[in-house]
Write a structure and sequence with these properties.
Elements: E1 27-30, H1 34-45, E2 50-53, H2 61-65, E3 70-71, H3 81-89, H4 103-116, H5 118-121, E4 124-125, E5 128-135, E6 151-157, E7 160-166, E8 168-171, E9 199-201, H6 211-214, E10 218-222, H7 226-241, E11 246-250, H8 257-260, H9 269-284, E12 287-290, E13 295-300, E14 306-310, E15 315-318, E16 320-323, H10 352-355, H11 370-373, E17 380-382, H12 396-410, H13 414-418, E18 475-476
Parallel strand pairs: 1-2, 1-8, 2-4, 3-18, 8-17, 9-16, 10-11, 10-16, 11-12
Antiparallel strand pairs: 5-6, 6-7, 13-14, 14-15
Helix pairs in contact: 1-3, 1-12, 7-9
Keywords: Oxidoreductase
Organism: Roseomonas mucosa
GO molecular function: flavin adenine dinucleotide binding; monooxygenase activity
Length: about 475
């Protein structure tokens, strides 16, 4: 099978009723990012047949979207063991284990070489959009014989619609393409869509490719997480270089403790320094703080500039707006299968208590796998950032552990599926001494263990952040899958 999306699957064995026997079918992996490719590698190790569907023209489409940003975590935490084994079998030279890759480095030095391997290339379907997943001949309601039916994966590629029958489905679609809107209610602010040409989401390349868009302009940043903080620091640097650049910062809460961090008391001095730097910029007037400011409406003046109105009755004027209020999953393709999701986080219900940002003030999450991620439709799993729903606490190494466990589960090795093989120091990837290598409080184990089995203190917080970014010259914890 070639890597193009038009390749046809091999003939499938037939069961007693003349329909394909699920046990002989491949396993679909939806999403060609780091976790999706790791899933494929682990399935291959277990003698199973994976098929990866990726909507983009290459693997790692999402990390290319934040290609200018360095990760907080060094390479040694960003390469999956099974993937490394495959790569080294073909003479791959690993990057410096202690270096911090950008999103583009992650693709060019790791994911692209992995995808080019003969074991992988024929199992990738690029430029292929999955449009739905269902139990063949069962739909969502039917119980009788349900588990004996294979899954039907419906997809579009090269302008055509097709289907593939599979025995299991691993959904590793990530959340990168689905940012939260600016509206404080969780809905887009009134007028937000109409002003789309003046709004960017996430963390634009302020000092690089997007410099011309923001230089000499009045820019409003909405959000209080590390993506927002990183963008604010980049804009402040731009303001020093480009006269006329004005930076405004809108946050919902008047309490900026979370954004500023612990300062000198922070257990991660580099992270504390980031907060102190932002605090200094606010105190000096370089960054104009608007707090509390809950975005309600976005209007436009005759000259096209934005008039952003808050629920508090305030109005901010800006030429451009950057919305860094987090990400959310889009599980619309799973409308015909049975899911058991937490109503708030939109993650597997069993996983929710481990990752709820309303409870955990750090990102420490007990390693977990197939048993927490499986759904009521046997053989269906959420993995990677998609499994975390709206929680901003995901770590890439955690995603690798998830798919290792799922692969073991699918071959009946329950001992391995339950076994913990996550290799991180007790303080998480934030143990690095590199300058600004600190992890977001929502992205790693950054505080002493104070709750048995949870590893972090309880502290009510809003899950407003994206999975955390530093500035373009700083670090972002690879929680993203943005990558998937």
């Amino acid at each position: 099978m070639s890597s193009c999306c038009s390749a046809k699957p091999a003939p499938q064995s037939r069961g007693p009723e003349g329909f394909p026997s699920p046990a002989t079918l491949p396993i679909a992996i939806i999403g060609g990012g780091p976790v999706g490719l790791a899933a494929a590698a682990h399935l291959l190790e277990r003698g199973l047949e994976p098929l990866v569907f990726e909507v983009g023209p290459s693997v790692g489409t999402a990390p290319l979207g934040w290609g200018h940003v360095h990760t907080f975590s060094p390479w040694r935490y960003n390469v999956d063991r099974a993937c490394r084994t495959l790569l080294e079998r073909h003479g791959w030279t690993a990057p410096d284990a202690e270096a911090f890759p950008t999103g583009r480095d992650l693709v060019e030095d790791y994911l692209a070489p992995l995808a080019a391997l003969p074991e992988m290339a024929g199992r990738l379907r690029l430029n292929t959009r999955v449009t739905g997943v269902a139990r063949q001949r069962a739909g969502k309601v039917r119980d009788a014989g349900r588990e004996r039916q294979p899954f039907e994966v419906r997809f579009q590629a090269e302008g055509m619609e097709d289907r593939l029958l599979v025995q299991s489905v691993i959904v590793a679609t990530g959340t990168w393409g689905h940012p939260n809107p600016a509206g404080a209610s969780g809905l887009p602010a009134i007028g937000e869509h109409r002003a789309a040409d003046r709004i960017r989401y996430g963390m634009p390349d302020v000092l690089g490719a997007d410099r011309g868009r923001y230089a000499g302009r009045r820019v409003l940043v909405v959000g209080s997480g590390h993506s927002a903080v990183g963008t604010l620091l980049d804009l402040a640097s731009l303001a020093e270089q480009a006269p006329g650049t004005t930076v405004l910062w809108a946050v919902r809460s008047a309490d900026l403790t979370r954004a500023y961090g612990g300062g000198a008391a922070d257990q991660l001095p580099e992270r504390g320094a980031l907060g102190q730097q932002l605090h200094h910029l606010v105190e000096s007037g370089t960054v104009e703080l608007l707090a509390p400011f809950s975005v309600d409406e976005v209007g436009q003046a005759a000259d096209g500039s934005l008039q952003v109105m808050s629920l508090e009755g305030e109005t901010a004027e800006a030429d451009e707006m950057v919305v860094a209020t987090g990400l959310r999953p889009d599980l619309g393709i799973l409308g015909e299968v049975r899911l058991d999701l937490d109503p708030a986080l939109e993650c597997p219900r069993v996983l929710a208590p481990l990752i709820d940002p309303n409870l955990h003030s750090c990102g420490t999450v007990r390693p977990h796998g197939a048993h927490e991620l499986q759904q009521p439709d046997t053989g269906l799993f959420l993995a990677g950032m998609a499994s975390y729903g709206r929680a901003p606490t995901f770590l890439l190494a955690t995603g690798y552990e998830q798919v290792r466990s799922i692969a073991a589960f699918l071959v009946g090795d329950m001992e391995a599926a339950r076994r913990v093989e996550l290799d991180l120091p007790q303080t998480g990837v934030c143990s690095s001494s590199r300058v600004v290598a600190a992890l977001d409080a929502e992205a790693a184990c950054c505080t002493p263990t104070t709750i048995q089995g949870a590893g972090c203190p309880l502290k009510p917080e809003l899950a407003e952040d994206t999975p955390c970014c530093g500035t373009a010259d700083q670090k972002v914890p690879l929680s993203a899958e943005p990558a998937e």
